[in-house]
Amino acid sequence: MRTTQLFILLVILAALVACGGDSSPACADGEAGCACRVDDTCADGLACDLATRQCETTREVALPALDPAARACEILLADDGARVVTARFDGSVTGESIRQAPRTALAFHANEDRAIASSAVRAVLAGAGGMTVARTRCFDRDGRALAGR
Predict the structure, then answer these.
(1) 111 domain residue, yes or no
(2) Where does the pLDDT of residue 67 fall: very low under 50, low under 70, confident under 90, or very high at 90 and above?
(3) Does any domain span residue 14?
(4) Whole-angstrom Cα distance, residue 126 to residue 149?
(5) Do residues 121 and 96 make contact, with C-beta atoms less than 8 angstroms apart?
(6) Which helix or strand (DSSP H or E) is residue 25 part of?
C-alpha cells in the first residue's frame, strides 16, 4: 500500500472513531445522576448533593406519631446516613423547615383545633440511610408544652 493511500485510510479511520463515539444522550444539568443547576437545584423529585454537585433521587418519610393533644410542634431531625433535604406539609398544617447540616429543624401547627396526623408532615430524604428525631417539643391548644422527648 502506498504511503498516500495509507495516510488517507488513517484519516478516514480517525474521523469514524471521532464521530462514532458515545451514542448515549447528554447528561442535562438538573437531571438524576447529572450535575446540579447553577443555582444548586434539580428537577422535581431530586435534590442537589452539595458535596458532589450531583442530582440524586429523594424519598418522603412520615414522622413518628405525635401526642393527640399536640396542636403545634418543633422537631429537630438529624441526618443518619441519609440527608434531610426539606419537609412537606399537607393542607392540615402550616409549617417551615430550616436546614443547617447535619440537622434540620421543623416548626408547624395545625390549621384547625384537631390532632396532627403523622402523615401531615413528611421529611424529604436524599441518599441511603435514614434520619433520627433528635428532639421534639409539642404544645397543646392552650400553648402549654406537652411532656415529650
Answers:
(1) yes
(2) very high
(3) no
(4) 26
(5) no
(6) none
Domain of residue 98: give its range.
59-139
Do 145 and 139 form a contact (C-beta atoms < 8 A)?
A: yes
* Angstrom distance (rounded) from CA 97 to CA 106: 5
Strand order in the sheet with 54-62: 46-49, 54-62, 121-126, 83-89
Q: Is residue 16 part of a domain?
A: no
77 occurs within a structural domain: yes
Is pTM beyond 0.85? Reply is no
Residue 92 above 90 pLDDT? Answer: yes
Other CB atoms within a 10 A radius of the CB of residue 70 amount to 21
What CATH number is given to the structural domain containing 94?
Answer: 2.60.40.680
Q: Exposed (0-12), middle (13-18) or buried (19+): which is 32, by Cβ within 10 Å?
A: middle
